[in-house]
Amino acid sequence: MEEEVELLEYQQKETPVQDFSLHFAARNGDANKLKELLKTKDPFVVDRKGRTPLHHAVCCGNQINALSCVEELLNCDKVSQKTNGIEVTKAFVDIQDINMETALHLAAKNESQKIVEKLIFAAADVNLKSLENKDPLGLIYSKVPAAMVSVLNIGITAKDGCEIMDESLQLCLDFGAIIGYYSEEEAAKRRYYAKELQLLSYALDDSPSSSREILTHPLVKLFLELKWRKIHYLFFVSMFFHITWLVLYTVFITEVYLLHCPYQPFKNDTDVTDDRADKQPLRFTWFGFSAKYENVSDINTCTMSASCIWMAYVLVGMSAIVAGKEFFEIASSRKFSWYFKGLENLGQWTLIISVGALCWPVLISHDVQDWVYEVAAFGVFLAWSLILTQIGKHPRLGLHVEILARVLKSFAMFMLIFASLLIAFALSLSLLLPGNRAFISLPLAFMKVVVMMTGELEYDTFFNGDDGDPAFPVSGRIIYLFFVIVVSITLFNLLIGFTVSDIQVGQGLQQKAEVHKLSNQLEQIYLMESFILSRKMQTLFCNRRPYLKRFLVARQSDYMDGAVNTSSDDDFTVEISIKEVPEELRRTIRCLAAKNSLGEDPCTDDDDDVEELNVKTVKRIVKEVLRMRGLL
């Protein structure tokens, strides 16, 4: 209503001869009235905000009416049926208002998928910047990723003269929708190679479920595969460094806090000649199979060898490098909060802090406090958990790690839902088994109930122990029996059933883990590319630009010594053989190539033929069996 009042005031006061009836009809979503007005009215007329009827049509509240109005505007005679229809249509959809926003900007902001697709196929420019320095393509990736599926589909074609089913089929892959097209003006200003994953990283801003349409598209998966082949050895260098750091961290803890300075319960006692001296503590060994004991004379000694001191210095230095890498990731992240959502990043910082706490007694104080052993215990567990995350970054191995993470999340939710039931049994058993050390507090009782859920029931210990009968033998056994039936049998097997079912069902854990794995792969490659193709690195390698170009999938024009090549569609097109495509993507890639090159989809026909063939085969076999038995 406010928009209509502004338009009406402008019509009456400022330019009385101007007619905005088209704008009103488009804003109200009245397609029939709009169709009648387009016979005599000019759709190129703009209002005070610089908006055409197309701008108002995409902002209509009703998506169905808005789509109808957009179709009427794009199909009217003044836009589509001229000698240069394509050029006129493109000029119409690319009109920018006073905020430098096109209709495609507004459609993407309103998350209108059908309208976005319609404007894209009407040759709308996806790279026009608004005053907020936002282009439509970035908004589409973040707001309506499903609208990009149609654009990505047409990016796969077969090379002219190639048979679709040929084993050596040559493919033409247009990665412009993934990398982002740039105009000739932008090409003239660029002096550096563009980051190929800058645009695709918009998919990381949303949850994996909302970006599934983009990340699981065959063209995107193939692009990530080709990008991985370009950059994978740098990933292995990073992975080797991290694993070396974590293994050194483990060796340092073992050498210092298990071998040279093991924890001694009575290390502050000066008298070791009493009965406790006979209780020699066991000594840890790296690869021994027989028990070894600490020497009584060495109980109170804690000497650091030179190797421990050198390991501490190396560990601190490597931790500083890891901290620098983490700061770079924070600076490269699209959002500050996006970085801290990753549990791996939080784990890295926790481990870096623990390095300082563990190296302090070795290098500075030379006094090991009891709490340091607890830090070492949690630290070594965290270190090997981070090794698992490093393994999970590999595209071939990441799916298994992601499935484990998903199962752990499902288990956590399962335990949260049924926690009240476990607490009920914990408190009941605490009342009916008084004096039992396992039930002297709620945390201990809850932990005991969880352990009992796995099958460690200890019936004889509770009811037939050396201490005699329990205080409440009948009630205790009844509650215990309920626990065995409800928790140990039903609840535990229900948990296993849910987990197995989710893993086996295609729509379950495997599909979710696949999307999350692609998100992690995209994130890792994006961070590496941000470092390699940063301006400082490109300036440093200014005389060796071809070395950096090997990390690019698509061709990009060289910008050397001021000689600038204008943008070309060939910059984003890559020709590869079908043999270079991963096996699981070949069939889908062939289908899309056939549909775009030949105008037909052989896969659908093949599926129908296979189904029909199977039915005919079954009928023939049944008839033969009946004929052999004399029934026909």
UniProtKB/TrEMBL annotation:
It holds the Pfam family Ion_trans. GO terms for cellular component: cation channel complex. Keywords: ANK repeat, Glycoprotein, Ion channel, Ion transport, Membrane, Repeat, Transmembrane, Transmembrane helix, Transport. The keyword Acetylation does not apply. GO terms for molecular function: monoatomic ion channel activity. The chain crosses the membrane at residues 231-252, 304-324, 345-365, 371-391, 411-432, 438-457, 478-500. It comes from the Eukaryota. Residues 309-505 form the Ion transport domain. Its main location: membrane. ANK repeats lie at residues 99-131. It is a multi-pass membrane protein. InterPro entries: Ankyrin_rpt, Ion_trans_dom, TRP_cation_channel. It is found in: Membrane. This is Ion transport domain-containing protein. It comes from Allacma fusca.
